[in-house]
Structures are given as structure tokens and as C-alpha cells.
Amino acid sequence: MRTVGTTIDRVDGVKKVTGQAKYVDDIRMSRMLYAQVKRSPYAHAKILSIDTSEAEKLPGVKSVITGDYYKKRGGLYLEDKNFLAVGTAKYRGEAVAAVAAETLDIAKAAVELIKVEYEELPAVTNPVEGMKPDAPLIHPDLGTYKVAPIFHPVPGTNISHHYKLRKGDVDKGFAEADYVAEHTFYIPHVQHVPIEPHVAVAQYEADGKLTVWASCQSPFAVRQALATSFDIPLNKVRVISPYVGGGFGSKAGTTLEGIVIPLSMLNCGRPVKMTYTREEEFEDAYVRQGVYATLKTGVRKSDGKILAQKIEYVWDGGAYTEYGVNIVKAAGIACPGPYDIDNIWCDSYCVYTNHPVGGPYRGFGMCEIHFAIEQNLDMIAHEIGMSEVDIRRVNGLRAGGATATGQILEDCGYQDCLETVVKELEYDKPCEQVAPNLIRAKGIAGGWKSPSQPTDVASAAIIRMNEDGTFMLMTSGQDIGQGSDTVLTQIAAEVLDIDPSKITIRTGDTDHTPYEWQTVASRTTYCAGNAVKLAAEDAKNEILELAQIKFGCSKRDLELKDGYVVHKIHKDKKVPLSTFALGLTLPDASGIHGPLIGKGSFVVPNNVGYDQETGQSPKPVAFWTVGVNGAEVEVNTDTGEIRVLKMISCFDPGKVINPALYDAQVEGAMVQALGTALFEELMLKDGRILNRNFVDYKIPTADDMPELTVRVAEHEEPTGPYGARGIGEPVMVPGAPAIANAVANAIGCRFFRMPIRADDVLKALKEKKAQ
Amino acid sequence: MKQFNYLAPKSLPEALAFLAEHGDSAVVFNGGTDVVVRLRDNLIAPEYVIDIKKIPGLDTITFDEKTGLTIGACVTMNEIGANEFVQKYYPYLGKAALSVGSKQVRNRATCIGNIVNASPLADTGTPLLANDAVILAEGPEGKREIPIREFFIFVRKTALKKDEIVTAIRVPYHAGSEGVYTKISRRREVDLSTVCATVVRDGDDWRIAFGSVAPTPLRLVKTEELLRGKKLDGALIEQAAELAKTEVAPIDDVRASKEYRVTIVGLIVKRSLEALAK
Hints:
Chain A is of the alpha+beta class and 771 residues long. Chain A has 17 helices and 31 strands.
């Protein structure tokens, strides 16, 4: 192939490394106002009164609003969220009032002048407690909320979604098993910490047109949410997402857009801007939900085959779960990991708590549940005297195997990935005492993920030929750092057989670029990629239609070659593509057809919903991306410090479009996983975040980078563009449990909670010694 | 951050005059790596910020065997780490200075700022404390020398008066003395100390200082007493490590538990003594 499968430089690279890429915070407009927010100091409190009079008197303050200004609820899957608290504040840091002022300093000063009277209410700070019948209700009107039909809130409780999966007969499976074990794990909240915090500018103009510039992953989803929330037709809302400085899921939905919009409406014509501080990013952007994961597993000891598994995931959804309910569903569909188990019973609950709002985070639930699934597997292997590799060989999915929803996989690279990692890591070599206080050991973990999207979500692309035979490619799959601009350009270039430099890609403007559901779910290469491929094929077909007139032959004898239409047999007969840019000029000087435009629309083929009682479906998701990670760690038994020395990834990405971008994605994912395994946790106490800054919320530095190895086992995806599958999230999934398994192998202590801190290691060693 | 007046005096008397006039509403601004953070978080809201970096003569390090090392108020952490005298006679002080923040932060941050900020976990606190450093301050009544052990009073409280400016720190020189600096942190780079410590051996004399285990950096006087004049052996080292644990009073916080810190104190004493016994 010409460019697919080849590394080319990032198409956005020069602008980014020279600092010339413009992000939303770079936008400066004349007469711009600045917004700031008053936040609740309580985890759960009734708002008795808000006095904004002093703030309004401050010179330079233009508007002050509270939840009373706009009471309509909104949300992606469950309409449970107000942009400004109405009636009660449901988490500490929730916006209760907002100010627009001539300068940022004035806006900040005005916020201090807003007086809010609260009556503190009992708070729910643990989802397991929150499920109990006597728990304080966070959304007493849950039963009246509008909800997408695949989600099942339980009115009168804090449960905003109960996902059920019932496959086979678990009782029978457990009865046949001669070894049964149950283990519970807890995975705390973490935050995405994109380099660029959330930022938005809104401008409402006299003709009723609302323009929003937002650092967001999904301009069309944001447009839809805002149009619904503010009752504006879609043609009157324009969402523009310029360069995005990292999202990791946190910029998938709406956050502060809902605050700047009403303020811009009150100040017609004047743009209103708000940029989060890092502290606000921690307290009022999405966080990854915490979860309690309990796995009860029945095993046949003779060969390690898992006969039955009963799984319960209890998710700490936070104060609003409009997006979080889908993570809970995704975890349910994927509940046992990439293992072929006949009898599964799973309940996955989304529970409201008075914690920061949970939302999509790279992995969409998978990183969390695999921390449990993969450690559980190792524990069972040890308990029945089997190797960690063999238990995965026996149970790991292979072609012809069945997923938890009963989907039969035509192909699956899991076993290849496992063998590659075992070999590369030299997993058979035992752990090593390298000094009296230093032990080195290895661990492995598998993982999988599918795009967690509704079955019928759509993507579109348009490609236009310029007069000189170059092209403009338009999609709304957003490059949030993952490299999609480059990959989509390569896909179009491959179809048209031109150099990728001949194509300029434009994304992220709902008035001008075509529809894309969202840039989430590791779907862009696959979904937007398919739309781009279809658009380029459409353009190619148009070119050939015109070329057959020009050549006076059938189009099947023509091909596109390096910027030309070439006759397949008489290769000297060729014309440049530009010949057809504006249609074709005939010998009599008349023109036909007009400017050349290709269009592509894509929706996942044969994707069907699942049974709401059993979760069963022959194909509820577009594809499954599977893989395995290995890690080698060194544990200091004096200080408890863990160093990750090596990490190895082998995934089945289908076809890799751009190898360097693939490697970068995988390396970034492994380091992000390392961060969650060893450092990251949103430390919450009574709803308060104790570490809402980089002083005490640690992410890995260059010094923490292990030696990273990236391998692939390419089993092409039949429905993917050139066989490609999505990989951005899946490749992060097994990282943390691989590290946890390595630590357990090093010191013989199991950690049921992450992160695994030096403090925890010493405590565990002490307890082990005492036994 | 509230608005303030920025003053940049060109001489020490000018600075002291400003401070005498506005002492209650002024903050002395050096590298700024603590002050700016506190300004941004509205923990302080001074009317005047007095930048001392324009005052000539505060940015030098000098050394002679009689006086010891003198670190000017505006010398940065990176400058301390790179200084030949520090590397030769006080390598553990250099190590401590280079363990602060990131390289960018160390290009601004000063050792004197670190001391005046009086955080319990000041990274350069323990090497100075273990050397009985002397703080050189100047105020309207003239120059004053404050022994570092009297300088730290509590968390962010020092013996410095509002109208005084620290001009330098003097670190005495003891021929043949050796020391070990240890920093235990959650992450090796760009992190605060969970526990930090300096152990100095000066002939038969031992000086042990710990940070982040009490409201101020702390000397472990009983442990020092136990070791004084004795020949180090395995049993004595164990005994010292156990005694050291009883001399500290750390707290539980987001960085570590009290129990972890106590364990680490014993470990650092043991490791440091073993290293210096060789």
C-alpha cells in the first residue's frame, strides 16, 4: 500500500511544536467578558438563598446568574444535570452562581461578594452505602427524569442505572466447579489531567445565532446537548473545537459551556470566556468513577477452566450520571474480560454519590474492572497451583469463542498477544533478589475493550478537490492528540493514491464540517476512518466517471496513480487529477459535472441492541480490541518504593495505519496506566478533594518512564478501514493490573486497591511478617 | 490574586526602610516560588511586595575554612548545587538543593527563601540544621546572627522580625566532617519530601536532622547523644534507629501515614549511619 501501514509525520506536528497551533484560550475578541463561578463548599446542601446584590453593584460586573435563571435539566443519556445547581448543591465545588465581568479580576472579586445560605444535608460518600434503602436521596425525582431506553434508573433509590447480564446458568456452573473464590477490589477516582484545562467562549448574537468555541472532543454532541438545554434549533448553534490539548474523555460531554452561554445571552453580542484553573479541573470537570468490583469465580481445578462467574460492579457515579450510566453499561457488557466463560451473572450499578461528577475516561470502565479481573485470575491460578500464563491460555478468547453477550468472535488475537508478551518479557524467568532490599518480578495482564457507543451512531466525511488537484478533507473526528488528523489523511490518500501532503484536513466546526457522533470510544480511526474512506472512494468514482469520457474508454480500465488518472494497459495515457477538479471540459469548450466532491456516510454494520434482562446480543458492539501487557517491577522492601523497569504491550489492532502514532499511543497508555497503578487517586474525604493540585496529585514524570516495548498481532478487522480497529483506550486497559500482578509476584502481597503506594507496600509487608 | 505595589529597592538600607514603613502589609520577594503560590491562592494579600533581587551583593557564595560557607540571600538552588565549595565540602547540601522541585523551579528558588518559608519539610532545612548554620539578618537595629536551631519556631513561623531581612546563611566548616542527605518522596522527581534528613559525622560527634516529622525541621538530640564518642557497630546502629523513631512526631497526611514516616526515620538513620561508618 502507498501510505497505510507507513509512518508519516503528524500533519499537525509543525504547528504544535512551534507553538503556532491556536487553542481556545488563545482566542481574544473585542469586548470579551470573563466568567467566574461561585462553588458550593458542601458535599450536599439545600440552597436556602443566594444574594447577588453586592456582586451586581461591583463596577465592571455585567451579569450574575444562579440556577433559577435556567432550570431545565439536560444530559447525554439521562437528563439529570443542571449547569448551575437548582435547589440543592450535590457535590462540593458544584457551581451555584456565575458572574460575567469586564475583566477576570473583577469577575473573581464579584464571586466573593455573592452570599449563599445553605442548609447542610447528609451526604452519600460511598456507593455501597448509597445503594441501601435508608441512604439519603440525591435525586428524589429520578423517576421523572428523561432517560434513553437502554438505561434503567431505580426510582426512589440512588441507583441511576442497573445493567444486568445473565448468560448460561451460573448455579449449575458453580455446582460443577471444584474451586470457588470471591475477591473484592476497590478502584478510586482519578482525574484525566489534560495539559489544557477546560475552556469555552460563547457568543450569542442579535440574530439568535449562538457560537461556542470549546476545547471539546465531540462538537456535534455538544451542539446537541446545548441546543436541547437552551431550546435553540441546531442551525442556530455553531460549536467550534479548534486544537485540543488533550481530553482523555474529560472533554467528551459538556461542562462549562452551559455557564458561559446564558451569560452571553444576557450580554447580546459580547463573547464570554471561561478557562478552568487546575483546581477547577479537579473539582468540576469529569473524573473517572470509583468502583467496588466483586468477582466470584467457579473453576475446574484439573485444567483451570472457569465454569461460572458472578460479578458485581458498584460504581461511584458522583452527583450527576448523565454520561456515567453508559460506562456502567460498558463495564457490564465487558464484565469478565477477554475470557470465554459459559455461565455469567453480572450486575453493574451506577450509584449517585455526593462526589465529583463521573464521566468518560480513557478505557471507559475497562481499566477499572480489569484491575480486578486480571488480579483475580492470578489469584485463582496461584490458589489452584497453575501458572498465570496457563490460566489465560485456557480461558482466553480465541477465534470461534463467545463473549459475555454471546457474540461469537470470527477472529481474535488474544492468544497471539499473550504468547508474544510471555516471550518478550521472558516471563518464565523467576523473580530476582537483586539486593537485600530489592526484589524484581514480572506480571502480566490481558484486557479488552469495544467502542462503547450506541449501535446506530453515525459518521460523515466530505472531500473536495481543489483546482490544482489537491484536496480538502472535512470530518468532525477530532484530533485530541491521538493523531487522528494524520491517520484520516492517510486513509484518504491511500484511496486516491496521492501523497498525504496533497490533502488538508479540517475538523470541528458544526457549521462547516460534516456530522460525527463523538470522538470517544476509540472509534475515530474506525468510524470516521470508514466515512473518510467512503468519501474518498466516492470522489475517486466521480473522477473515474469523468475520466472515462475524457479517455474514451471504460472506467474499469483506468486507475488513480500518484496524482494522475492512468490507463491500466496503455500506461503512457494519463492526465493529472486536476483535469477533473471543476468537472470536465469537453472538446467543444462546454463543461460537465462541476466541482468534484466526494461524500461518505458510515454507521456500524449489523450492530444490534441487547436484551435488557439478559444483556445477550449477537453483536452489540462494532468490534473488540484485545491485548496483553507485561511489566517488570523492582520493589524496595525497606522504603516500599516500586519502580516499574519494563512494560511490554502486544495488542491486536487489526491493521496499523501509522506505526509511529500507534507506538506513541501505546507508550502513552502504558505510562498513564502506570500513573494510576502507583500514584494517582482523587483523595476524597466527606466529599472534599484533599489533593486538587499537582503538589499532591502526582502523575508520572520522565523519570518514571520504564523501558517500553510495543508489539502487535495484526488480525485485520473485516469491517475496519483497511482492516483497522480502534486502539486508543484498549491499550491502557491491562497496564495497571500487570504492574499489580508483578508487585504481588515480587513480595507475595496482593493489593485490592490502587494506587499501590510505598506506604501500602510497607504496611502489607509488615502484616505478612506478623502472620 | 489581589493587586499590590511592587517595589524593587537597589540597596539594603532602602529595602529596610521600605520594610520599616510597611512591615505589616509587605512581603519580601526573593525567588518567588513560595510567595507567588501563596499570592495566587490568596493565602497572603500584601499591599507591598518588596523584591530584594535588585540589591547588589546578595547573590554570591563564598567559602573559607575559618568562616565556612556563606550563601547570599538570592543564591538559587541550582547555583548551590553547582558550586565548587558546596560540592567539595558540603555535597549533601548540594544534593538537598537539587532535590527541590524541578529544574525550572530551582532556577528561581533560593535556599534562604526555603528557610524563611519555614515549611516543616524544607529540603535544605536539614543539611543546614545538621551543621548548626547561622542566619544573618539585618534590621533597623543593625545586624543580627540567629542560630538556625532558634530560627524555626513553628510551621511557617520563624524568629525573624517583620522589619528584618535575611541577607545570608553561614554554614560552619568542620574539617573532615561528612554527611548524608536522604529524601523519601512519593515520586522521585518534582515532589515534596515525605521525609527528608541529613546525618553529619564530625569525628566522634553526630548531628542528625529530620524534616517533615514535626512542625519544624528537627534535630534528634537524644540519638546524637547516644552515638557521641561511641564506636559504631550493628547493635548501636539498630539502637540509634529505634531511639530516633521515638524522637519524631509526624502526622498522617495525604502524602503518607504517620506510621510510614516513623518507619522511614528508623530506616534513614540506619542507612546513613551505615554509609558514614565505612
